[in-house]
Structure formats: C-alpha cells, structure tokens
Amino acid sequence: MGHPMTDQQILRVGVVGAGNISGAYFDTFPRLENLRVTAIADLDPARATLGAKEVPGARALTPEELYAAPDVDLVLNLTIPAAHAEVAHAAIRAGKHVYGEKPLAATTAEADTLLEAADAAGVRVGCAPDTVLGTGVQTARAVLDAGEIGAPVAATAFMVTPGHERWHPAPEFYYRPGGGPLLDMGPYYLTALITLLGPVRRVVGMSATPRGTRTIGSGPRSGTEFPVEVATHVTGVLEHENGALSTLLMSFDVWAGSLPRIEVYGTGGSLSVPDPNGFDGEVRMFRAGAKEWEPVPERGGYPGASRGYGVADLARALADGGPHRADGRLAYHVLDVMESLLAAARSGESAWVTSTCERPAAVPAGARPEAQ
User: Fold this and answer.
1) What is the CATH classification number for the domain harbouring 196?
2) Is residue 211 located within the same domain as residue 340?
C-alpha cells in the first residue's frame, strides 16, 4: 500500500445530492486513500442526514453551508441533470473544484459558461463517466495503442433496450427534452469511443419516435400512460479526427438484440470491447489470418474500479500537477457530439463538431489513482 497519505494529500469532498446514485460513490470512497467525504447536502435535509450516517466523519449541511465550508475542497455534484450547471457554478464561485455525474450540463451553452467560470477561478472540473478508467476499456486501448490490430478504420457502438418505463416507477424524464437514449446512455459509449479513437470532427444522423406514448410498467403508477417528447431511436456515423468512422445506435425501441456493445476494426484485425457502462469485462481480439477470437489479458486500467475513481484520479492530478482523465473538456466534447448528432438528424445534413478535446492519458496496468 505504501506510506499513509498525509492530510495535505487528501482531497476533502462535499457531496451535493444524496439520492440513489450517491450510494455507489459511498461504497467506493472508503478504499480510495486520497479522498475523504466531509459533508453531505441535499434539498431534502432528511436525505442528507441519512447519507451522513452512512459515511463516517461526514456531517449533514445545507447546500449553501457546504459551498462555504472550509473543509470542502471539491464538490461532488450528484443532483439531477437539470441542476448540474447551477450547482457547479455555486461551487466554483466558492472556489471549489467540481466533479459531477453526466452530463456536464443540460446544453453546451450552459457547459460553456461553466468551464469559463472554472478557468477564471482556477479550479478543476471533472465529469462522469469514469467507467473508461477501468480494465475493460483501458485493456482495449492498450491493444490499439500497441498497433496490434493495425490502424483503426471503423467502430460500432450499440445500446438497445425496449425502454426504461418497464422497470422505472417514474420514467417520464427519460422521454422529455434532455432525455432519450442518446443523452441517457450515449455518454458511456461516446466517452469510450473518444478514449479509444480520439475526438470527433463530423457527424451524420437520423432519428425516429415510433411511439407517441409509453405506459409505466411497475410501481404504484403502473398502467399510467404518458407522452414521448424526444427521439427514442437514434443512429448515426461519427467521423473521428484520425479518419476512423464509428457507427452509433442508441434505442429505446428494440426488444432484444445480439449486437456487440463496441467493436473496433483495424487494418490488421478486430477488437471486441466490453460494456462501457461497466468498469471491467472481457476484451477479445481477432488477428488478421486467425481462425477465431482470442481473449486479451488485462493490460491497463484501475483494477477493481467503480464509481468515484474519476474523483480519485482528479485528486491525484491536483497533487502532482498533471491532467486528470475524467475531464470537463472531454465531457463537453461528448455533449457537443450528441447535440450535433441530433441537429444532423433534424436537418438531414452532416454537422461539424466545433469542439475538440485531448485524448485522456492511458491508465497503466495495475495503477492506483492516488499514486502513479
């Protein structure tokens, strides 16, 4: 494990938003030596109090008290997507670093002001998903970076489901502006594609809304019908800056599919990448001239990673002065790609993606986020 970390090396975290997703972070943080949760806030004080009971050493505060707290260095923003920008701005005004759940903001216009404010304040912005820091995507990246399937030519990324209303007791927000399969699940797949192949410069797309209403399938409101206000089937092609073409399919209209999650095709072989909504999974490679796929042993990524490793990676970057991987500018580019794809689907023309980002540094095999 090495030497114990000093207080100066530990990033003190204040959590805003104590809903369902917070539990995943609270389960992870005890094994991350460079993080300590000191405060928890929620618009519902009872939830903040309950959350503080789960985390030794944390206390329940109001959001305003948390932003002002001297023992909070970073605000972990776990609020609903519509509040992401508002909470981030409040934290930045207080001089705190920010790490948030995806998306970075509801729109690129909101995200622009957020990043500008952070730059002006000299604080860092991080954003989920950090699933790409696990052994699944990072092992696939190690294969690509070593040139073992040649130069990347193309990729496919598919996420299909019949819709979240089957299991979610209040699913309406998935079918309103800001929702839909692309904005809900796209960040996982696009962050993985950009980690593997680099940023995107142009997109084409089409979308459809096959059903105008959906019916809640579980919970006390089961049987309730509600309107669909967004495209529920989105497909497109992304042209990466390196020339590779990724085909993307995101759908809430498919009952079953045997399509791969992500595959990358190169001049010398193919690569099967595990579900980017998880941190690990088997990577397989098919070499030119081979007769079958072969499993690839772990060759990169934080072993045993789970939600919160992106925060620890940011803490490590603050300590050593280097870049952090789950970066706000990467999350901005992902949001820009999604907006551009939907715009292309509406216009029937290709759309240029005006932003770009740095491809995050690879995570070495066996690395720990607090010491590399």
Assistant:
1) 3.30.360.10
2) yes
Q: Are residues 70 and 118 in the same domain?
A: yes
By DSSP bridging, strand 225-227 and strand 269-273 are unpaired
Task: Give me the domain span that covers residue 51.
Answer: 7-127
Is residue 311 in a domain?
no
Closest listed residue to residue 190, CA positions, set 137, 232, 233: 137
* Any domain includes 368: no
**116 Cβ contact partners less than 8 Å away, ≥ 6 residues apart:** none
DSSP secondary structure string for all residues of 80-127: -GGGHHHHHHHHHHTT-EEEEPSSSSSSHHHHHHHHHHHHHHT--EEE
pTM over cut 0.90: yes
- Do residues 181 and 225 share a domain? yes
Query: pLDDT tens per residue, the chain (372 residues)?
Result: 444 555 668 999 999 999 888 999 999 999 999 999 999 999 999 999 999 999 999 999 999 999 999 999 999 999 988 899 999 999 999 999 999 999 999 899 999 999 999 999 999 999 999 999 999 999 999 999 999 999 999 999 999 999 999 999 989 989 998 889 999 999 999 999 999 999 999 999 999 999 999 999 999 999 999 999 999 999 999 999 999 999 999 999 999 888 879 999 999 999 999 999 999 999 999 999 999 999 999 999 999 999 999 999 999 999 999 999 999 999 999 999 999 999 999 999 999 999 999 999 999 999 999 876
Are residues 27 and 167 both part of a single domain? Answer: no
Say if residues 140 and 196 touch (Cβ distance below 8 Å).
Answer: yes
